[in-house]
Design brief:
By secondary structure, this protein is mostly helical. The chain has one domain. Helix content is 61%, strand content 5%. The protein contains eight helices and four strands; from the N terminus they run H-H-E-E-H-E-H-H-H-H-E-H. The protein has a four-stranded mixed beta sheet. The chain is globular, with a radius of gyration of 18 Å.
């Protein structure tokens, strides 16, 4: 059974699809947050956006110390308070990034009424995920954080959602990485790595490509972007 056939049986209209895709987008956002966390290094305290290097060797040459040498299962009990704050900041910001990517895809592809229903379902699902994974204790706190992050994006210069050649550089993703550090409240200078065993690029591309394809395919299959009868 194809994804679209499964959706036809399991979800009811754009709102139901938004809820279903919201869970997928939230999982992808959490995976991207973990990948960024595992790729990070620390340097001397200094203001400015975190540099993003192609390889970990470049990060080390620039004077940053990688926090992880290999991929490991993240255990909160083994993290310092500062590391826990960074991880929480990354997850908070990247849930918002996922919401922005998917909701904008719907706005471009769907009729206004269908897009509105879809985004309502998407937002509800992502807020649920932010609560269930214990980033926030209540739905209201999660919703407030989501809205705050969206306002921070609207006040920035924007740009493409992801730089296909260098994810995290001069794109919307870079804004949310910077936002994550602001949320963490740390004065430490961080750096991140996009390629290699601990690089985040693959997870970033997966989040964007899979969710955008799902929106496109469902819009065509259910005729949510046309004036005719939709289902």
């Amino acid at each position: 059974m194809s994804l679209i056939d499964w959706l036809a049986e399991k979800v009811a209209g754009p709102k139901g699809f938004g809820q279903a895709l919201g869970r997928t987008a939230a999982e992808a956002a959490a995976g991207l947050g973990n990948a960024l966390f595992l790729s990070h290094g620390t340097g001397a305290s200094d203001k400015g956006p975190p540099p993003i290097f192609d390889e970990s060797s470049e990060m080390e040459c620039a004077g940053f110390s990688p926090c992880f040498k290999e991929s490991v299962r993240i255990d909160l009990n083994l993290l310092t308070p500062e590391q826990q704050s960074l991880l929480r900041g990354l997850h908070t910001a990247l849930y918002s990034y996922a919401f922005l990517v998917v909701s904008n895809a719907a706005l471009r592809a769907m009729k206004t009424d269908c897009a509105s229903q879809f985004i309502n379902g998407l937002a509800s699902s992502i807020v649920d995920s932010m609560t269930k994974c214990r980033i926030f204790e209540t739905r209201e706190a999660a919703r407030t954080a989501l809205l705050s992050n969206m306002r921070s994006y609207k006040s920035s210069s924007g740009g493409e959602f992801i730089n296909l050649e260098k994810p995290g550089s001069e794109d919307v993703l870079s804004h949310f990485i910077n936002r994550a550090i602001d949320i963490s409240g740390s004065a430490t200078r961080y750096a991140f790595v996009r390629n290699g065993e601990l690089g985040f690029a693959v997870m970033a591309m997966t989040l964007v490509e899979l969710t955008l394809k799902a929106v496109h395919d469902a819009t065509e299959a259910f005729k949510w972007g046309e004036l005719g009868t939709s289902r």
